[in-house]
# Entry
Amino acid sequence: MFQIDNMSHIPVYEQLVGQVEMYVLKGILNPGDRLPSVRSLAGSLAVNPNTIQKAMAELDRKGIICSVPGKGCFISDRAGEILKEEHRGELKEFKEQLRRFRMAGIGRDEIENCVDEVYSEGKK
Amino acid sequence: MFQIDNMSHIPVYEQLVGQVEMYVLKGILNPGDRLPSVRSLAGSLAVNPNTIQKAMAELDRKGIICSVPGKGCFISDRAGEILKEEHRGELKEFKEQLRRFRMAGIGRDEIENCVDEVYSEGKK
DNA sequence: TAACTGTACTACCCGTCATAGTACAGTTAT
DNA sequence: ATAACTGTACTATGACGGGTAGTACAGTTA
# Structure
């Protein structure tokens, strides 16, 4: 379910956070679902338990999961809601990227093509 | 002309690289233009000369500027061309971002609004 | 000659990422 | 109750990158 890219410049714990969030957005992980334990994840991913715990702590801090000592880590009820709100906030940064594209001479039609392509994926 | 945000998590030398590239794309810096010297920039920006030099080395490596010992650093003839090509390569990453937005429930209309807004800025 | 230019090099500080090992408290099944 | 799990906390260590500090060298220009 999870996989780590050791060659990536992105920290391992951030990769984990990102993958959990992605699975939540995709509906693969749903509220109440239990994540693998810190130690089992550390074993299967060949990563130090502390690194896994760091990812769990971050997810718990954001409200994506709910860590319960002795029981495990569970997807929070508001996980999807929180993530969607977070992405909405990234729209500002998105505009900055668009402005850079425009200055780089990338035409509006090229952008429109990308949007059309992505938002047509998986449609009937 | 240049300014550094010490509170940013982005390395100073990367901020400098980004600003030079931005000015090139905006047409404020043009081929042949001479950048302030390493030491004067270090002084005015209150940054170590080594940090400035690191930015210059990176810009020289990418072909954006041409460093000439004893004379100075000058905007390369192909600077604009190189930057536009670089941004074109980022279209793939742009699509990934779009997919994340779509999964986060951001509608196509919201994206279209952003595109329209950005590509309408500064138009007659 | 003097004052500039870019460049190279070493040394050091600091923060982050990751590992390693230990320990403690809560939960669950036997 | 015991054993085996669960999350959590803590210290110590090593590696790496960003940044500073200082020095030095070679090319350019007035």
